[in-house]
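ugh ok fine here u go
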Amino acid sequence: MALQPTSRRQAVRDFKRQGILDAAEALFQEAGIAGTTMRAIAERAGYTAGALYSYYDAKDKILVDLLRRSLASLNQRVRTAKPDDALAAFHQFFSDEPAAFDLLLHVLGEAERGGLNAEGDRQLNGRLIPVLTALAECLGAADPAAANRAVLRFTAFAIGHQVLMRSRRLESLGFDAAALLREEIAAIQIA
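structure:
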């Protein structure tokens, strides 16, 4: 079956957008998010700055698309984990994908600086909710509201735990990061 002209154009556009996202992701890892300009992304992706703006008119939109892509991977990881391992899989994803964690922190920090635009916020929540829902389902709680609260508590713990692990703060304070994670998972699954 041949692609229709519109489908073909959209497929080419999507392919080019993925190349831009790949270039941006590499630059964010090399120079940091704040240190990466739209011009640098365009150059790395093989475009002029003007051509890049026809795909993404702001760096925030690139960040949102990258985070959406990361959250889709996270959702896959959580959903393919055994129910008893889903919380650990959520936490491990950010250990395995430090760039995704940096991106998450940056985008979450945007709220302090005025936040994402309404569309970006809607898209982000659209990817985050399935991950949190999958975690809540794994808890098997009779009360969905209680499961959602437990998942949000764990998410807050996991983000803080990642920050403290990455800064080596847990180690310098004499805490075993793995033991803290096991204790938190056990406490949440009991709740």
